[in-house]
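Help! Submission page says 'invalid entity' but I think these are all valid:
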Amino acid sequence: MIKITDLEKYYKTEELQTIALNKLSFDVKKGEFVAIMGPSGCGKSTLLNILGMLDDSDGGSFIFNGEEVIHYNERKRANIRKHNIGFVFQSFNLIDQLTVFENVELPLIYTGVKKAERKKKVHEVLEKMQIMHRRKHFPQQLSGGQQQRVAVARAVVNNPKLILADEPTGNLDSSNGNEVMDLLTELNKQGTTIIMVTHSEHDAKFSHRIIRMLDGQKVIENSLI
Amino acid sequence: MFRNYFKIAWRNLLKNKVYSFINISGLAVGMAATIMIGLWITDELNYNDHFKKKDVIAQVYQSQAMNGDVGTGPAIPRPLEFILREEYADNFKHIVMSSWEQPRYLKYGETNIYTQGNAMQESGPEMLDLKIIEGIKDGLKEKNSIMLSETSAKTLFGSDAAVGKIIKVNNLDDLIVTAVYNDIPENNSFNEMDYLIPWKYYVTKQPWLENAIDRWGNNSFQMFVQINENTTMEAVTSKIIDVKKNASVDEAEFNPQIFLFPMQDWYLRNDFENGVQSGGRIENVWLFGIIGLFILLLACINFINLSTARSEKRATEVGIRKSIGSQRGQLIFQFLSESFLIVILSFVFAIGIVLLFLNGFNNLASKVIVFPWTNIQFWLVALAFIIVTAFLSGSYPAIYLSSFNPVAVLKGAFKSGRYSSLPRKILVVTQFTVSIALIIATLVVMNQIQFSKDRPVGYDKEGLIQIPVMSNEFIGKAEVMRTQFIASGGAIEMATTSSPTTNVWSNRSGYTWEGKPVGFQEDLAYTNVSYEFVKTLGAKIIQGRGFSRDFPSDSLGVILNKTAVEYMGIKDPIGKYIRDADTDVENREPPLKIIGVIDDIIMQSPYSPVKQSIYAFDNGGTASFYNLRLNPEKSTAKNLEIIKNVFKKNFPDTPFDFQFVDEEYGRKFSSEERIASLARVFTALAIFISCLGLFGLASFVAEQRTKEIGVRKVLGASISQLWLLLSKDFITLVVIALLIASPFAYYIMGQWLQKFSYRVSVGWDVFAIACFGALIITLITVSFQAIKAAIANPIKSLRTE
Ligand SMILES: Nc1ncnc2c1ncn2[C@@H]1O[C@H](COP(=O)(O)OP(=O)(O)O)[C@@H](O)[C@H]1O
Ligand SMILES: [Mg+2]
C-alpha cells in the first residue's frame, strides 16, 4: 500500500540545517499494523506528516496505492487524504467549541456526505467506541481516555484505508492506553492499515512489525509475526 | 512605582507590534478627526467674536404674511428709521441705516478696484468698533467722504497716506478718503466690507432711493442697532413689534412684525420658518459634533475590543500576578497605565495628522483654522480628552482582565465561554452600524445634489456670460454694445436684465388682474429684461412670444413664467392686463399687457419650486447685467478675447469683469457640496477605523482558532471552507449592523431631505450599495487574515509542545 524510497527531509533554521529524514526507505502492505519507534527528535513525526500528505519531502519517492504522490500539489494531496487517511494525535486535537458528535461529523462534512447519512455513520461509530451517551458533551467535559476514543472515532468515521497515529497513548494512563490500543487492534483486524508512532514497547507489541529509527534513518526492523 | 508600571506597559507595546499598531493608528486617526471637528465647531461658535459688542448689537428684521405664509427677512422700509429715532430713542445707543453690500468701482489715478462695500449712517464705524489706522472714526459725517479698509487703501495708494486723497466712485462722483480701518477678519460679518460710504450720499444717488423715504411698502434697506445698557433685546422687540403695522394702513394687511435679530444668532441661527426662528448652521455644528464623537467612539471601541480579545491570551500573566499576591487594584492600574500610554502616543500622532491635514481640511470646509498651539484652553480640553479616552477605552479591559480567577487560569481551565465574546460582538455591531449609517447618509446627500443638478433649469446656462453694469454709462450704451458684440463675432446675442439670471433681486405686489381672487396677496418675482431676453437665455416660450422690436407697444408688455400663470389663476393669459392697484390714481403705473408665457427658469434655489415671476420690459435705466450668448462656432477663450476688446474700446477705464452663468448657478450647490465632501471624509474615516478594528479582531480570532483550523484542514477542509468559517461570524455581525443602520439612516435622511422641496426619494438602491459596499469591505478586511490562516501548514499548529 505504501512504498517509500530514499525519502529525505531537511529543516533549515537560521543557517542550521537539520536532517529530519535521511534517505529513508520501507514499505507497508495493505492490512499491516506497523509501529515506529525511536528516540525523540529522530524524525518519526516528520515521517508521519509526509505519509499523511500534510508535508512535502525534499527528495525520494512515495508511492501510495500504486500512485507516485511525491509531486502532487496541495489540492490533490488533500483529496487523497480526506478519502483515505485518518489521523490520531497524542494531544487528541479535538475542537473545543464543538460537541463530540460535531467533532466526529467533521470529516464527513468535508467529504460531502449528506446530513442524514452523516448522522447514521456518526452514531454507528460512537456506538462502536462506546461514547454514544457523551455525544452532546464538549471535549473539556470528558476524561483523557474518552477524548482519545472520540479522536479515534473521528479518524475512522470515513472508513479510511490507513490510520496514522502519533503517540496515541502518550497522554493517557495505562488502562486508558490499553483501551485505545484494543480499539486500534480491532480496526486493524477489520482490514485498516495502521502506522503508529510510539515510545512504549508495550504498545508496540500490539503491532505486526516494529521499525526503529535513529537520526532520520531506519536502523532495524523486527517482525512480531 | 509609576515608572515601573509604564516600563511594563512599554514592553507590552513592543511585544505586540501589530496590536499596538492597530490600536495607536486607529486611535490617532479617530482623535485627529475629533480634534479637527472640535476646531471647526469652535470656529463656528466663535463667529463674530471680533465684535466686542456682539451681545448688544442686532439687526432689525421683519416678518410679513402673504396669503398666510409668513416670510422673515432683514429688508425693512426707510420710514422705520424715523419712527424709531423719534419715539423709541431711549432704547437704542445707535441706530444705523445701511444699504446692502454691493460692489462699486473705485478709481484713483490709473489704479482701480471693483470691490464690495456698504453705505452706512455715521455711527456705523463706532458701533462696529472699526479700528482706525489713519484718519477719523467719524469718517462718514460729510456727504462726499469714503472710508477704506486697509486692503483697499493698500491697493489704491500703496504705502502712501490715504486720507485726503480723492477717489472716483463708479466713474461718477469724487469722494474724499476720511479714514482707513483694519480689515474685519474672516469668520465675522462684514468681513468683505472693503469700504464704507455715507448713507446721505447713497440715498441721493437714485430717485427711487429718495422716494423711499416715506414708503412703508418699500422694503429695500437694512438697519443695525445697538441697544442701551439698561434694556434687553426681548424688551425692545416687544415695544417695536407693531410699529409698522400701526404706522401704515396699507401695510397692516400683511401683519408686519418688526423685531431685533441679535448678532449672536446671525451666523448660526438664521433660519426662520413661519416667522419663528428655526435653527440654521447650528444644525451642522450639532451634526458634525455628533459625527466627531462617533468617530472617537469607534476608535475607542477598537481599543476595548482588541484589549479584551487579547486578554484571554494574557490570562496566564494575570493568574501568575494574582497568585504572587497582586491586588486587583494594582492589576487595574497596570492595565490602565497601558491604555494611558497608548492614548498619549496616539494623541501625539493625532496632532501630527492634524497638522498635516489642516490645510486640506480648511479648503474642504472653507475655513482658515490655525492650530491653537498657544491656547491654554485647547490643551486643557486635550488633557481632559486624553484622560476620558484612556479611561473609556482602558477601564473595561482593565476590570475584565483583572477579574479572572487565578486558580482556574493557572490550571489551564480558562476557556473563553460561548458568550464571552458577546460584548465584543455588540461593539463591532455598533461600529458597523455607525459606519453603514454614514455610508447611507453620504450617498443620500450625494444623490440629492446630483438630482438637483440634473434638474432642468429652463434655459441654456452653458456658453452664457454676464457682465455687471458698473455705471450709468453702461445703461445708455446697451443697444450700441449689443450691436458691437454681435458684429465682433464673439457673441451671437445680448440682453440686459435687472437681476442676474441666477437670482431674484426684486419682488413686487400691489397688482390687480382679471379674475384675481378677492383678498389675494400676490408676491411676484420681478425682473426687467430687454428685447432679446428669451433668445439670449434660450428660454422656452410656451404661449405667445417674447419682446419684439416689431411691436412698439411691447415697452408696456410683460412675460410671465408658467408658475405665475397658475399662481395668478389667469385663463388664456395672452393679451390680458396686469394693472397697478394703487388707490391713488395719480401715482398709478400704466397697465402691463401679457405678451408671452415662458417655461419656468430656476433663478433661485435649485431645491425649491420656481417662484411665480414676471419679466417686464427694460425701458432703460434698470439694467444690472449685460447677458451675452457666446458664439458657439468659436472657442470660449477666443470669444472672451473678442468681447474684452470690444468692451475695452467702449469703456477704456473700466476693468473687464464677467461671470459664467453656469458657474454662478453651480455656486448654489456649494454649501451642500461642502457637507457632502465632509461627509465623505468622515465616512471614509469611520470605515477605516472600523476596518482596522475588524482586521485586529480577525487576526486575533484566526490566531485563537489556529489549532481548530489545523485540525479541520487535516480532516479535509478546503481553503474556501475555512475562509467561509472564519468570515461567516463577521459577516453576520455586519448584516445585523445593516439591519439596524438602514431604518435609522432612512429616518434621519428623510428628515434632512425635508428641507428641500425638490428632493430625491431615498430608494432601495442606496441601501443596496451600502449593503454591498459594507459586505465587500468586511470580506476584504477579514479575508486577509482568514486566508492567511487557511493556507498555513497545519502541522505547525498541531505540533505538541
Ligand atoms: N518545523 C520544524 N522546523 C525545524 N526543525 C524541525 C521542525 N520540525 C521538526 N524539526 C526537527 O526535525 C527533527 C525531527 O523532528 P520530529 O520528526 O518531530 O521528531 P520526533 O517526532 O521523532 O520526535 C528534530 O531534530 C526537530 O528538531
Ligand atoms: Mg514526535
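Support: the input was valid. A stray whitespace character was the problem, and the output above is from the cleaned input. Chain B is about 50% helix and 15% strand.
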